[in-house]
Amino acid sequence: MSKEMLIVDGLQYSNWSREIFEQMREGGVDAVHATLVYHENTRETLSRLGEWNRRFEAHGDLIMPVRAPGDIERARQAGKVGIFLGAQNCSPIEDDIDMVAVMRDLGLLIMQLTYNNQSLLACGCYEAEDSGITRFGRQVIREMNRVGMVIDMSHSAERSTLEAVELSERPVIISHANPASFHPAKRNKSDRVLRAIAESGGILGFSAYPFHLKNGPDCSLEDFCDMVARTADLMGIEHIGIGTDLCQAQPTSVLEWMRNGRWSKEMDYGEGSQANADWPRPLSWLRDSRDFPNLIAGLRRRGFDETSIARVMGRNWVELLERAAVPAGAGDVAA
Fold it and tell me: Which Pfam families match (predicted)?
C-alpha cells in the first residue's frame, strides 16, 4: 500500500502493547485517537496519563504523543504512529471546571460529555428522558471551546447532541458511531443529528464495532462502504472519517468496566440483549489495524476517487483537529 495515503483512526481502546503498535504501523496507520478513560475520576485519570507516558518512553521508536494537530504530520514524517488521547466520559473533570484546561494541558484533546448515562453535563443515549445540556454543561462547552478540547457526543442522546452543537462555537464530533438508518442501535445517530454535526464543521467517525452494524459481525465490507457513500451524500465528504472502535485483546473485565463502571451491580446489556454480554466476533475484513488497506480497497471498489478516499481515511480528521483542537488565540505549536 502506498504511504501517500494518510490514515487516522478516530477511536480505539485496546489492551495496548508493542504488538498492537506494530500492527498499526504495518497497516499504514499514522495516528489514533486512543481512549484514555471511561469512568475514571481526576486522580485516576492522572494515573492513566502516567501509563501513556511510560508507553511513549518504552515504545518511542513506534509511537509519539499528539498534543497539537501538526504532530500527526510530524509523527508520519518520523515513521511513527501519533497517539491523541480522549475521554469517553466527563468524569476526569468531576465537578470542577478548572480541570478542563488542566486536562487539555496534559494532552487530553477530546472529551465526551456523556457515556451512556446522564452525566453532570448532558444526557446519555440509554436514558429514557433526554434532559439536554445542563447548566454546568453550558459552562464546560464554553471552556472546552476556549482551551481547544474537542466536544464528542458519540454516546449522547439526541436532544443533548443537538443542543451541544447549538451552544458550541467550535465543531462538534461523533468519533465512533453510524447512521441509525443503516442499523437502528441506540448508539447510532439520526439524520437530523448527522446534518447538525456537519453544519457545525464536525465529523462522524464510522464505527466497525459489530453491534453498530447491519448483520453484526457478518456485516460485509460492501455494505459498510455503501453506508459510507450514503452518509457522504447526507453530510458531505468533508465531514466523515473512520472511528473503528477497535478493542483488541481486552478481557471481559474491561467490557464490564465500560458498561457498568461503579454505578451498577448488574451487567448493563445496553441494547437489552444478553447476546452482547461478551466481546463480539471481529469483522473478517477488519480484524486489527493491519487490515486498514481493506477499507481503502473497498472504498475504491465502491467508486470513491482518490481524493475522497484520502479525506475519509485521515485528512478530514486532521482538518477537524485544526479547527477544534487549537486553543483560542494560539497557533499550532507542538508541545
Answer: Peptidase_M19
